[in-house]
Amino acid sequence: MKRKNMGYALLAASAFFGLTLASGASADAGKLAESCVACHGKDGASTESDVPNIGGYSASYFGDALKAYKAKERPCVETKIRTGDKKGTKTDMCQIVKDMSDADIKALAQSFAGKKFVRTAQKFDAALAKKGKEIHDNTCEKCHSEGASLADDDAGILAGQKMAYLKEQTEFFLGGKRTMPKKMKPKLEGLSKPEIEAVLNYYASMK
Length: 207
Hints:
With 207 residues, the chain is mainly alpha-helical. The chain folds into 2 domains: 29-113, Cytochrome Bc1 Complex, Chain D, domain 2 (Orthogonal Bundle); 126-205, Cytochrome c-like domain (Cytochrome Bc1 Complex, Chain D, domain 2, Orthogonal Bundle). 43% of the residues lie in helices and 2% in strands. It has 9 helices and 2 strands; from the N terminus they run ααββααααααα. The chain has a two-stranded antiparallel sheet. 42% of the residues are buried.
């Protein structure tokens, strides 16, 4: 289920709300990253239940995610900015990245790739998580290795990611709103809803 050159993960991205740039401008990576804090928290470790953690993704995966939003190849869900001067105002990822240059995207991707992915402590069903591990090992492990915990897979980090976010992205994939990689498509579509729920609980169980 590898998502190289895809954008975000079955997890896994992500949204970088509250970031604005002048058209064609190139910005300092540190300043770009600071702007993401408004929703994704310090170093991309979000405390919001519906906002994914983004620190620690590979630069390749992170960059592809932003490019996918810029090309409107991923659903741009409207959300409220959580902190800062623009708190309470609405935006979406397509608006945020539309004026970013390739240099901006590369700089931002490299910056967050240097951070640590912080797993979310969240509620999960232990029995489902146990079943989900077996399903993951048989279906997903080839591309999402070591329990979907490695950034080097360039497939996002699913272990410890927000379950609400992973569920939303899974629904986008299955609903045709987000394109799946060829290798991923038959595997995900071959799972039943209860099996998908079990896998999501497995990822949520990893702390």
